[in-house]
## 1
Amino acid sequence: MVSDTEPTLEVRNLRTHFFTKAGVVKAVDDVSFAVRPGKVMGLVGESGSGKTVTGFSILGLVDAPGRVVGGEIRYKGENIATATDDRMRRLRGREIAMIFQDPMMTLNPVLRVDTQMVEAIRAHHSVSHKEAWQQSRDALGRVGIPSPEERLRAYPHQFSGGMRQRVAIAIAMLNRPDLIVADEPTTALDVTIQGQILYEVQKLCEETGTALIWITHDLSVVAGLADEICVMYAGRVVEHGTVDEVLDQPAHPYTRGLIGSVPSRNRRGQPLTQIPGMTPSLLNLEPGCPFKTRCPDADAVCEAEPAITHPAAGRDVRCHHPVTAGAPLEVTA
Ligand SMILES: Nc1ncnc2c1ncn2[C@@H]1O[C@H](COP(=O)(O)OP(=O)(O)OP(=O)(O)O)[C@@H](O)[C@H]1O
Ligand SMILES: [Mg+2]
């Protein structure tokens, strides 16, 4: 069931395009989803599907030649797609935080970790240095860094890759933001550590009511921990629903392809399938369904862009030939 609490973030028909010399790259082209307090939204898709640009759009970090050209990004009701730079700067770090794939996007290499953490707290809250230091120590402890008192005195390069990412995550969570966008922060780490970090972040978000968007190209990373999943393809959300719905009854051929390419215990002995072909270039994308050239079910109908259908409440599928478990789909624009 999709919860009916007010969403922390609601993205509606977001379009972010890059106006390059070669033409317009429609990196995000009609993306809609909502995340509620304490919930995890997994944003999944192959390389180039528009996941990072979606995250950057939410944080107001899209630079020229890119621009949000349409839609709304409602954070607690306020449309931040049109917010000033000043407003976005105040929101970032205090209410909305991003965890990047590379922790050095967050960390300053020439400053000790305690200096960075204490500054991050005191930039937004009037607390004493000692209090901020104690909060920093507790934050490192919460993300599983052993001997946090000692580690606070270290510089970023004195941490291993995994530990450095934990520090960046601790910094993102320092001011108990209401929304975190995590962009593949664990991809460089081994699978056990990835799962462990995602579990820790999810637990913290549940405790603090933080809404979390976890971006990944790997469905198996979010399978166990996200509440809902948006599958992105060619700048669009092609399928959305609760994790159970999407994994148990994938309706879009692309989602089925993604699931078929993940090793699974219950399909042991069966060969893994791979989606043939590559993601299309988002520069001058052909009309029609962008998945048609790779889709086993494509036919003449797919020459037209598919509308979003709703096989159930809170479920979205953008396909002319979705796999349905029951009644025919009701089409809404
Ligand atoms: N500065 C830019 N100028 C032009 N095109 C861009 C720019 N940044 C991103 N794009 C294009 O936007 C599209 C979406 O990119 P994005 O980085 O969001 O993909 P992604 O899903 O995060 O992929 P990955 O899994 O590789 O991180 C790509 O086609 C990319 O080439
Ligand atoms: Mg990316």
Note: The pocket of magnesium ion (ligand 2) is lined by residues 51-52, 183 (CB under 6 Å).
## 2
Amino acid sequence: MSKTLIRGAKVLGGEPQDVLIDGETITQVGAGLSAEGAEVVEAGGKVLLPGLVDLHTHLREPGREDSETVLTGTRAAASGGYTNVFAMANTFPVADTAGVVEQVWRLGQESGYCDVQPIGAVTVGLEGQKLAELGAMHESAAGVTVFSDDGKCVHDAVIMRRALEYVKAFDGVVAQHAQEPRLTEGAQMNEGVVSAELGLGGWPAVAEESVIARDVLLADHVGSRVHICHLSTAGSVEIVRWAKSRGIRVTAEVTPHHLLLTDELVRSYNPVYKVNPPLRTERDVLALREALADGTIDIVATDHAPHPHEDKDCEWAAAAMGMVGLETALSVVQETMVDTGLLDWAGVADRMSFTPARIGRAEGHGRPVSAGEPANLTLVDTAYRGPVDPAGFASRSRNTPYEGRELPGRVTHTWLRGKATLVDGKLT
Ligand SMILES: [Zn+2]
């Protein structure tokens, strides 16, 4: 069994300590640990976090391997400090059967870079008509716990109610992409001042908020858990805050891009800023940051959405929606939440590892950095600051909105069950 001593790391941003990994497990955490028989990683005051967990990743395999595969996506994940990702179901074929989720799960196991937990579709073919085989997917080798039609909204209230009732039996969760379809027909960007000036079809906040309001009430009625994907408006925050105050079992995520970018960027007509839900206003961004800090929003999830350049390098109206995010998420969170004083590193560990692991029930992930725990860890050089260079991405796609933008923080090492997947910023 191999031993690694991480020397002088600020565990969750605290005082520097040594962390000894033996095989797959953390065996000691303390000051001045013996390096005998161990490979030494000099942390030099870098921050050590539990391996990050992403509840919302698009790995695109099967079906769109030109944009990402499970292998390239999990390499991107390891580069970004992740040790576990949940793979969304909108693949081709759709992950709506035990067969497809098992295929994705197996590919994740083979990749060796990051654990992959498939998300199962709520409805057959994401068509919103008929419930998929939720029970069979849960009982498969993939052990699906999270179900979502992400990319599409489960808009039929009866189907949503049945899904919530069904997953309650095994404490699963339905993750809703909240988008009222009729209110967003022809939508190209956030509905507001900028869309009016540019003459682009608007995606109004109420199309998100009305679905969230309905779904928290349904979850309350059924006594089940609902998770809201990529919350993007100040009004959505208010609804989730109200629901939590009533004891309703709702959790919510925000993406890094909704914490940093606004719809003003759409004035450039650069499709790299086209995303669903759309970039909102400065007021929304500030409300989202505040809600993530006070726990109204539970977690950060990337909504990593790789697209090949031909689907993004075209005119605005024709471009695909979505951005890659796995390799820049932690930097954006440092920029928007840590360097602004809204969240400390223990808070980041909570929002990007402990809580997403708990919502998705990712076993062995989101655990404390202490003796006896699986060695799923990420080491971050928080003093670093530099421009984002997509040429260095491990993802197969390059559709990042941060190209050339200076961001803080750089993940230098990632360990998956004691095995280094990233060393000095390079994948192993
Ligand atoms: Zn979505």
Note: The mean pLDDT is 97.
## 3
Amino acid sequence: MDQPDQTTHFGFRDVPLGEKQTLVNDVFHSVASRYDLMNDLMSGGLHRVWKDIMINTLNPPKSDAPFALLDVAGGTGDISFRAAKKAGAGFHATVCDINGDMLEVGRQRALKQYLDDRVSFVEGNAETLAFPDRSFDAYTIAFGIRNVPQIDLALAEAYRVLKHGGRFLCLEFSTVEVPGLDKLYDLFSFNVIPQLGRAVTGDAESYRYLVESIRQFPRPNAFAEMISAAGFSRVSWQTLSGGIVALHSGWRL
Ligand SMILES: C[S@@+](CC[C@H](N)C(=O)[O-])C[C@H]1O[C@@H](n2cnc3c(N)ncnc32)[C@H](O)[C@@H]1O
């Protein structure tokens, strides 16, 4: 059970554990309508490449064989849409996110792309998923897990809802280790991104949080240990773009 005085990070601030989710929700309510545009502007389109690498790694079957993906913190549905376009007729994705505004943008995108029969949207918390045990073939979470207050609970839930032989994949910002690139990345992150956020969404603070939260996230080896501790086997990771992003993988065996 949570201790009343337990704290956690919200960006560079320490906040009571029980308050983080409300603060995170405020961030994504504020940016939802401009979220996809901001992703392109902030990453120069690179987020599309990272997401495609995640989908290629997932490699959903191209056949009629049933394949159920749970895309947690799926927001506006990007990962699920990319997977649905690559997969066969047996594919179905469930986008689960705690924020109704992000999901509503996703629902509209699904309709526009004629993917509404293959991708469904469910409001829910990664820490307490409302899905039966062993009900999904794969679990993805992209740029979501660092926003979840209790990551160990989310990992335990990922393990619980995956079938035996199911795969866990997590794409998340990581730690730039390339000398020179780290300084440039810091300059860009702390100066350009909040200003871009202000110009496009009128909200610099939300983007300051997003940048700060990246710096608080565990390094790839430490995060891999957390994934193993949740019960996953064959845990591995690869870093992309000089460590800007890491893709972690684990199996429920
Ligand atoms: C940066 S967005 C990522 C969206 C999408 N996966 C993508 O890659 O474009 C992070 C998402 O995490 C969601 N989120 C934050 N805390 C959550 C939680 N406890 N459970 C489920 N979703 C959560 C937010 O609402 C937001 O939509």
Note: The mean pLDDT is 94.
## 4
Amino acid sequence: MSKKDIRALTKDQLRDFFVSQGDKAFRGNQVYEWLWSKSAHSFADMTNISKQTRDQLEENFVINHIKVDNMQRSKDGTVKNAVKLHDGLIVESVLIPTESRTTACVSSQVGCSLDCEFCATARLKRMRNLNADEIYDQVAAINQESLHYYNHKLSNIVYMGMGEPLMNYNNVMKSIEMITSEEGLGMSPKRITVSTSGLPKMIKKLADDEVKFNLAVSLHSAIEDTRNKIMPFSKNFPLTDLRESLEYWYEKTQSRVTYEYVVWRDINDKQEDINALVQFCSYIPCKVNLIEYNPIDDGEYQQASNKAIDDYVYTLEKNGIVVNVRRSRGKDIDAACGQLANKS
Ligand code: SF4
């Protein structure tokens, strides 16, 4: 019989296990602390637990800890981890340092079932969802790297790596629960952003669940036909549905949304594209991140001219919309936006 992943157990279940073995319930608390806040890779690491108890755990459970298989460091300080999962599959996560913060960008799925035309991950088929502990481990590993290289803890997390987080809803939510809990990393949910390609039903579910983290939506165009070309799956999710779900989100959470937006040459770099975005931004409080693009090949999707970006910034600001231009980091190691899974 295959052994169970011990981190699939809640704290209460772990306490119950020890009681069922004739031990004290608080042993469950000790082990739980080792598993999460101390990020133990093996039962042998649990030095304040008796050898007999560790053997007992070994007989019943496994710890499916991720392993950083390959770590690359960019000239600009960005770190990319290729992370091996217990079944040999690989995902990538990135540490992005800036002067004021260090951000972890983590993956939520192996591959992706969506089909964004500009994205390297879309070229891999979705193989499976990540478990909550596999997402948590990526964050914990990057936190260690942040301490090692930059002498301070991780300050922010974005769920913007490989996969669509809202298609792995329960595990993403559980990972955030652990990251924010005192028994995990104790981070504030306000420092976490979940980025979705825009699935209206799931955005409403987030609102109903009254989540406290931030929401970002990869919009890329506020013109239906253009968006459908860039993100073909969005034919099933018209912009009117997306708008309605975002209004619902804001009504319930009072939390403004960030629109992630890449400007591509000859795709969405005209004044009519800018005007449509301004209109879309009028529905709820929001801000826009214009993200620099890193071509994954020499095909249709190429970075727009600086003039086009300037036109976006000018018009958005003229209309009172907060806009940031995000320069990509880690291009030399394929860690920049849209590039994950380019090589591995
Ligand atoms: S951009 Fe995100 S949602 Fe779209 S294919 Fe890539 S990983 Fe999936």
Note: Residues 112, 114, 116, 119, 121-122, 162-164, 197 surround iron/sulfur cluster (CB under 6 Å).
